[in-house]
Amino acid sequence: MLTLKNSLRKLIAPVIIGLNEVVKQSFNIPKNLIPLVALFIGILVGISAAPFTTVDIYVRIWAGSIAGLTSVGLYESGKTRNGYTKV
Fold it and tell me: Which DSSP string corresponds to the chain?
């Protein structure tokens, strides 16, 4: 069961990264709200993964939220920044 949870989280993280980028390019969102948007997208993707897994809804929500927050960290760690994020 533990490996299924980890696999679900690892599989939906790239999907969340892509959806997060679509939302960031489509709407003018403040940078400090991006993790919250990714968390929300992760929860939605986790819930919508129902046809592909037999895991409980609570586990899918948990995996989606972790994957959403992880996707923000993965994208931001690969991005070079100049300056500070807060003024």
Answer: -HHHHHHHHHHHHHHHHHHHHHHHHHS---GGGHHHHHHHHHHHHHHHTGGG----HHHHHHHHHHHHHHHHHHHHHTS---S-S--
Task: Give yes or no for a contact between 39 and 60, defined as CB atoms under 8 angstroms apart.
Answer: no
Please list the rounded mean pLDDT of every run of 10 residues in the chain (87 residues). Answer: 58 81 85 84 85 80 83 66 48
pTM for the model: 0.71
Distance CA 41, CA 17 (A): 9
